[in-house]
């Protein structure tokens, strides 16, 4: 019988974070578990997010619902910041080409050139070159 837990503790989380760091380029620079920069020498596992997840003493379990809610809110904030980056005149709209470029930014690197070429064609389309995109949640 397979039992899937809907919560993890701080030590389990730290193991997962270490494993994830070992598999990506940016994380590999922190494979020893220490920060660089502002709080040099402190463990990356003891940052504000870990305290938020596990409480001040680190003994609260992290429930699946709290974690997924956090990820959803983080994702929405990143999208909002991305939109704001392209909304240079604070009109609450961005050009269709800028919207396409923001989508291309998260695309597979193997397809970047083709996607950038497609984004460039938006400037030549009589309807799309004047189209503005709004941010709605």
Automatic annotation (TrEMBL):
Source superkingdom: Eukaryota
Entry's Gene Ontology cellular component terms: uniplex complex
InterPro entries (UniProt xref): EF-hand-dom_pair (IPR011992), MICU1/2/3 (IPR039800)
Sample GO molecular function, one term: calcium ion binding
Annotated signal sequence range: none
Biological processes, Gene Ontology terms: calcium import into the mitochondrion; mitochondrial calcium ion homeostasis
Keywords, sorted A to Z: Membrane, Repeat
Subcellular location: Mitochondrion inner membrane
PANTHER family: EF HAND DOMAIN FAMILY A1,A2-RELATED, OS04G0502900 PROTEIN
Protein name according to UniProt: EF-hand domain-containing protein
């Amino acid at each position: 019988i397979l039992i899937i837990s809907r919560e993890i503790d701080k030590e389990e989380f730290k193991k997962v974070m270490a494993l994830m760091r070992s598999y990506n380029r940016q994380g590999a620079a922190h494979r020893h578990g220490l920060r660089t920069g502002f709080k040099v020498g402190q463990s990356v596992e003891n940052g504000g997010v870990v305290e938020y997840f596990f409480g001040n003493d680190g003994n609260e379990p992290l429930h699946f619902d709290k974690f997924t809610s956090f990820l959803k809110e983080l994702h929405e904030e990143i999208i909002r910041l991305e939109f704001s980056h392209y909304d240079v005149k604070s009109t609450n709209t961005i050009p269709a080409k800028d919207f396409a470029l923001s989508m291309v930014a998260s695309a597979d690197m193997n397809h970047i050139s083709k996607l950038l070429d497609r984004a460039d064609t938006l400037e030549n389309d009589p309807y799309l070159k004047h189209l503005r995109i709004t941010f709605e949640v």
